[in-house]
Amino acid sequence: MRYKLVVFDLDFTVWDSGGVWCDCLLPPFRKHEGRVLDAEDSHVRVYEDIPWALETLADSGVELAIASRTSQPNWARELLDLLKLRHFFEYEEIYPSSKLRHFAELKSNTGYDYSEMLFFDDELRNVEEVGELGVRVVHVRNGFQRDHLASEMDV
């Protein structure tokens, strides 16, 4: 199956913010010696295989999106910019709401059917809820890894 849209959650899927969600960090955020830190020096670390996955998907012509229910969408966007990841994503559904709303918006904005979407998330409730829509979902238990994508697509 060739997916037209691949969607990523942020916290504990794309990055680890020192064991907390990004809305638990303390701005201002900054780059220091190649690392993205908050005001208390908590390190926002992108999972090792995320850059490879985003580049691979972008090179293959698949569109990318974010679906994150953070209560601090501006912080999440700032972190994406500092981490130099934001440019990969054509669609951003970043606001405190159900993933069902995020995916309804993605369907409306892209014109893609749910069956043409692939979603990576660490929270089982999101995986179950979105899976009921007909989206192919992958439960990412300990951060995104290359095998999560390789098992779903020929990469």
TrEMBL record:
<protein>
    <submittedName>
        <fullName>Magnesium-dependent phosphatase-1</fullName>
    </submittedName>
</protein>
<dbReference type="Pfam" id="PF12689">
    <property type="entry name" value="Acid_PPase"/>
</dbReference>
<dbReference type="GO" id="GO:0003993">
    <property type="term" value="F:acid phosphatase activity"/>
</dbReference>
<dbReference type="InterPro" id="IPR023214">
    <property type="entry name" value="HAD_sf"/>
</dbReference>
<dbReference type="InterPro" id="IPR010033">
    <property type="entry name" value="HAD_SF_ppase_IIIC"/>
</dbReference>
<dbReference type="InterPro" id="IPR010036">
    <property type="entry name" value="MDP_1_eu_arc"/>
</dbReference>
<dbReference type="InterPro" id="IPR036412">
    <property type="entry name" value="HAD-like_sf"/>
</dbReference>
